[in-house]
Amino acid sequence: MSEENKTQNYAEAKKEKRDIVAASEANVNHLAEVLDTNDFKALKELKDELKDTWHKKQVFRTETEMRMSVLQDAKYPTKAAKYWQCVREQNVFFENLMSLSFDYRKNEVEIKKLKKKIEEEADELEREMHEIELEEKLYGRANMELVAKDRMREINQWSQLKSEYDDGSFDTKNVNTHQAESYKLMLTNKVKTLTPGSSQPEVFNVVGQLHTLERLEKDGVLLPYSAEAKAKLGYKPNTQNQQDLGLSTSSDISTKPADKELNKAKLAYKEASGDNEESKVK
After folding, report:
1. 166-198: per-residue pLDDT in tens?
2. Contact status, residue 253 vs residue 242, Cβ threshold 8 Å
3. What is the pTM of this model?
4. Quick check: 43 and 35 in contact, CB under 8 A?
5. What is the spatial distance between Cα 140 and Cα 151, in angstroms, rounded to a whole number?
6. Which of 167, 209, 202 is nearest to 82 (CA)?
7. Cα 232 from Cα 242, distance rounded (Å)
8. How far is the C-alpha of 277 from the C-alpha of 147, rounded, in Å?
9. How many angstroms separate the CA atoms of 155 and 130, rounded?
10. What is the pLDDT of residue 28?
11. What secondary structure letter does DSSP report for 176?
């Protein structure tokens, strides 16, 4: 039997067990013991709506949240930065899915053990306790299956985003390659948020990192990904028009940075750190 057929047969065998609706409905009737008559009646009337809510509730991030909140331009100002953040996010979700699979398998063993106890238990109250524990495990199984399904959805979405950002203009094998360029733009965006009211630690942290990065570039320790390297990879600039929000991003996704705020922040850094003229930030 081929691996594909084995996978299909395994999925078919699991189909009946993965009846999440049955798992959720089986426990609703027991709420009559904790709710008064009127509340339980209202709950029964909302049964179909609550079932629908349970299935379509948001578990993890939507595509909109992934693009807007996670991959926001100020923090990830280049396609490379966005791509590598997709790699990190996808890996986290895969590892969590693997961890969930171990919990799921342990839960399956607990279900088998409880079923065996129920069959062998002579004491009526002990048997009832085991039945309640079994129902709890079955409901937990249903929730784990729901979580696993949405984790897989997000893993797939990160894969699609990786493909979208991978236009051949950056190195997809070594995360370090893009960071001199991406971090410089990101730190430039950060200094734009500094105000006269910003604390000294804030100034030191942001401007200090930017100053260090610029020095390392000047010394040749860190080099931005060159135009020649991009050309060899078949660089394809993005012609999408975007509103100028004053963010510092790579030229293929947004606008060029303004230097006014950056110079102010550098001056504040120099004054706060007591730099003399010889060590003046240029």
Report:
1. 999 899 999 998 998 999 999 999 999 898 898
2. yes
3. 0.72
4. yes
5. 16
6. 167
7. 27
8. 59
9. 37
10. 74
11. H
